[in-house]
Amino acid sequence: MKSITLQDWDRLKLQNQFTIPGDATATDPETGILTKAKRIFYITRILATAGWTIIGEGNNADPQLRSITITGNGTEKFEILPLCFSKVTTLTGITSISGFWISASEF
Questions:
Q1: Which pick of 52, 56, 75, 85 has the fewest CB atoms within 10 Å?
Q2: Helix segments in the chain, DSSP class H
Q3: Does pTM surpass 0.85?
C-alpha cells in the first residue's frame, strides 16, 4: 500500500470535501457519508450555536480505544489538527459539519 504524501493530503483536502447538516442520518444516501466503510474522516469545522457532541469510532488498532466522544460549545474550526474518525454515529447540537475524507485500510 502506498503511503500518503503531503501533496496527496493537500489534494484530498480539496477533492473529498463535504459539508452536511447536523441532523443528517447515517442511513440517508446523501448525508450518510460519515459512516461509509474504509474511509477516515477529518472534521475541520463544526457550526453550532450552543453545546455539541460527536460520538463515533477512531481507527485505532485496539478495539477498546476506538470509541470517541468529543464535546464543545459553539462554532469551532480544527484547521491545523482536525478531528479524526473512521465512523461518526451521533451528532448532537450541530447545525452543520465540514471536513474531508481519505481512503483507509481496515485492521
A1: 75
A2: 6-15
A3: no
